[in-house]
Amino acid sequence: MVPTSSLRRVLPVVWLLGCIAAFLYAQNQHIPAMVAVPMGLAFLIEISLYLGVRQLAAFPPLAVAATAVVPYGIYAAATGKFALWQASLLALLVLMACTMLQLSPKAGLDVVFLVFMGAVYLAKPFRAIYMDPVESLRVDTLGQLMWIRVGVAAFLRNRPGLETGLGFWPSRKEWETGAKFFLYFVPFGLGLAALLGYPQFGLDANWWWKAPATFAGIFFVVALAEEFFFRGVLQRRLTQWTTPLTGLCVASVAFGLVHLPFRGFPNWRHVILATVLGLFLGKAFQTAGGIRAAMVAHALVVALWQVVFL
Predict the structure, then answer these.
(1) Residue 120: closest CA among 105, 138, 140, 103
(2) Tens-digit pLDDT profile for residues 23-42
(3) How confident is the model at residue 96 (pLDDT cuts 50, 70, 90)?
(4) Given this model, what pLDDT does residue 310 score?
């Protein structure tokens, strides 16, 4: 996602800021050094691999699998949270995903792979595999980041012509397109939320920091992953099979259905809302010709949602 030349400049900054953030968080939460140090190292390695997923895509599948288990091994062995069954499950999932790196570039196989990746993600096995070493520190984020980058690497490796606009920083046009479709969605989204009986509208007292923090977190992880898979892969493949309208609608429905477990299964209200949002995100993707505009709109919607529903 970051060019090699830029990655060399970005990683030292990420590690410096990461070390400072880890130190401050450990001090604030009273996390002992024997836990904070390996956890910080595991997270920094995982984030570095996440940023360098384009370079990772050139690795042999077994090498990709090895990078997937290294952060887990560092944290689990050093904090006493290593368990054979958990390590075996992680290795099995990663090996299955990395084996699929060898799949020939056929549309049907792409959809099968998407279903497999999505099913594992929704099953949330990483909550059981990555056990928290202390109560105030959730570490299953390591597994989520790993799963996203392995899936992205699979497509980048065998589908070099699959241009999705993958990247961390939108162009000016992509910012404008994303913001435009966000504004298009807002009246529909808020009106639909009211009809569906969502909580009363309000404004969080901490909106001034909560909104930008939510935007950043969603944009760089959740929106990137979901827009890559749903718009960049699924919608594009369905459009190649059928028509742009069919691809847009089917991918939007699939996007909505993935949100069924959100805040209590089955949450049909959120499925409906997410499906409608998917239509706007899909149009942003079509208009910009890449996923970054959809990522902008996606992150703006979630940031707004977090501060207006009390």
Answers:
(1) 140
(2) 999 999 899 999 999 999 99
(3) confident
(4) 57
Residue predicted with more confidence, 104 or 110 = 110
Residues 93, 119 contacting (CB under 8 angstroms)? no
Angular region, 102: left φ>0, alpha ψ -120 to 50, beta rest: alpha
Tell me the residue range of the domain where 238 lies: 172-308
Answer whether 293's CB lies under 8 Å from 285's CB: yes
Of 125, 158, 191, at which residue does a domain stop?
A: 158
Q: Does residue 104 carry a pLDDT above 60?
A: yes
Nearest-angstrom CA–CA distance, 98 and 121: 15
Residue 164 lies in a domain: no
